[in-house]
Amino acid sequence: MLTNLRNTKGFTLIELMIVVAIIGILSAIAIPNFVNFRYKAKTSEAKANLGAIRSCQESYKAEMETYMVCAATPAAVPGINKADFSGGGLAAFQTIGFAPSGQVYYQYEVAQDPNGTSLQLNFYATATGNLDGDATNGSFAVTKDSSQVVNLVPAAY
């Protein structure tokens, strides 16, 4: 009978608790990284759309010899949920040929260059969003002179 107890196969309670603890530690490390990767993936919308706005503005300027101001669209900065691309600046965005498909995570706006440069020479397009729902908005910008989209608030989503 003593040999039967020694030959039983299986895990002890301590071994199972160690495995559960290791899984918990790995989860504590992986989940925040996964959330950050989701935010970074969603920011690609802003970068792609600002690049498209820049191209549309250059095409518009080639025809009209000036850049167009486009009011903030959608009217409010979307939070953690997407919003319809509609509002006050929709007609201006359509005039330059920009219309994202579906809903957006960011509010887009095209204004005069903050350095005071006239619209015949430069424009300033921004994308503002709040993917994580905190008090700080994330913001990206592009101008005629910049070849890439600039992250204005690096620590915010």
Topology:
Blueprint: H1 2-6, H2 13-64, E1 70-73, H3 90-96, E2 106-111, E3 124-129, E4 138-143, E5 150-151
Antiparallel strand pairs: 1-2, 2-3, 3-4, 4-5
Account of the protein in words:
- The protein has 157 residues and is of the alpha+beta class.
- It has a domain at 46-151.
- The protein has 3 helices and 5 strands.
- The chain has helices at residues 2-6, 13-64, 90-96, and strands at 70-73, 106-111, 124-129, 138-143, 150-151.
- A 5-stranded antiparallel β-sheet has the order 1-2-3-4-5.
- Strand 3 and strand 4 (138-143) form a beta hairpin.
- The chain is elongated, with a radius of gyration of 25 Å.
- The N and C termini lie far apart (65 Å).
Short account of what is shown:
By secondary structure, the protein is an alpha+beta fold. The protein has helices at 2-6, 13-64, 90-96, and strands spanning 70-73, 106-111, 124-129, 138-143, 150-151. The protein contains 3 helices and 5 strands.
